[in-house]
Each structure stands twice: as C-alpha cells, then as structure tokens.
Amino acid sequence: MMKAAHSKSDETRNHILTIGRDLMSTRGFTGLGLGELLKTAKVPKGSFYHYFESKEDFGCKLLEFYLEAYMERLNELEATHFNGRERLLHYWQRWIDTQSDSGCEQRCLIVKLSAEIADISQPMGCILAQGTQKVIDRLAHWIKDGQEDGSLSANLDAESLAPMLYHMWLGASLRAKLERSTKPFLSAKEASNALLQPA
Fold it and tell me: Could you give the C-alpha distances from 104 to 22, 63, 109, 114, 116, in angstroms and in order?
C-alpha cells in the first residue's frame, strides 16, 4: 500500500510539473500565476504546497524535471545508428521542428526563460546554467564521436565549437521569435553544416 501511495504522489507532482511546463512555455515564469496553474491542473492549493515550498521552488523543480527529460531525448538520439555528424545535424533539425511548432509542450524552456530568470532567481539561473552546460558537453562528445567514426574533420576543436554552435542556435531562436520567421533557423542550419566539416 505504501508503494502505491508513493506512486500516486509522484503522479500528482509530475502532473503539476507537466501542466506548469506547458503554461510556462507560453506565459513565462513571472507571467504564470499560481491560480491559473492550479485551475488548469485541477489541484487544490494545499496539494501544490505539499510538493513545492514556493513558486521559486516550483520553478527549480520544473527546470530539473524539464532538463531530465531533455537529456533523456539526447540519450535516445545517441542510441541511434547515426554517425557523429548525422547525430548533430539531426539534433539541429529537431530544434527547428520543435521551436517552429505551435505545440507548447515542444517549446524549449531554456530559450523561453533564460533571460527572464537571470534577473529574478539565482537558484533557477544556476539550474539552467548547469543544464545548458550538460547539453554543450554532449554536443562536444558527439563532435569527438564524429571525428572517431570518420564523419567529421579531425581538425575541429570540439571544446570550442560545441558552445559556439549552441549559442548560435539560442540566438537564432530569439531572432525567430522576434521576426516570427524560420529564416534565422535556416541561417543557423547552413552555418552549422559549414562548421561541421566532414572528414
């Protein structure tokens, strides 16, 4: 019985986090009110404070929840038959597909929240900074994989190229939002193809 109760507790917590992710991807952190979250999730205020000490604590847990799922998607991509270069290009194509899509569950919270929470929450900012570093480290690993499997030039510096590519795509995402256009993504894709020199 204890195990079933624990499972139910996790289910409720994850439900609140999932609804929060979807709402925050469009509202942002400050724009999302607790009342709207509770109404949409159909849970009482007491349930929220059972799992989260405050809205900031909720934001921290939400980012951890999101980044865990994000890294799992990278693990799935790494498990494919793609060589290093194909894996990287597939990652950028998925970036275009999800950031151009209207489905809020696909939107990147890193893109949405980075600038906003940098000014209002150091704990949330630290979680995002650590999470993005993990992504960059994974990209560097894939570049090295590509060099080992012969799909990428051995002359590439994985440690400097990985953050440059990631930052370029973050910038492209912001420009795409401002312009309401996919052109910045296409420019980033073209640049990525050129920078990821095949062997």
Answer: 6, 15, 10, 17, 18
Q: Which two tokens stand for residue 92?
A: 């950028």
166-189 pLDDT tens trace: 999 999 998 988 898 899 999 999
Higher pLDDT, 107 or 43: 43
Cα-Cα-Cα-Cα dihedral of 56, 61, 62, 66, to 10°? 150
Q: Identify which of 118, 36, 25, 37 has the alpha carbon closest to the alpha carbon of residue 69.
A: 25
Which amino acid, residue 27? R
Cα(188)–Cα(172) distance, integer angstroms: 7
Lowest-confidence segment of 48-52, 106-110, 140-144, 150-154 by average pLDDT: 106-110
**Long-range pairs for 9-17: beta carbons < 8 A, 24 or more residues apart:** 12/43, 12/47, 12/51, 13/51, 14/65, 15/41, 15/43, 16/41, 16/43, 16/47, 16/48, 16/51, 16/52, 16/58, 17/61, 17/62, 17/65
Q: What is the mean pLDDT of residues 142-154?
A: 97
CA-to-CA distance for 34 and 37, rounded, in angstroms?
A: 5
Superfamily (CATH H level) for 55-195: Tetracycline Repressor, domain 2 (1.10.357.10)
Specify whether the CB–CB gap between 149 and 190 falls below 8 A: no
Segments making up each domain of the chain, as ranges: 55-195
CA gap 16, 69 in Å, rounded: 15
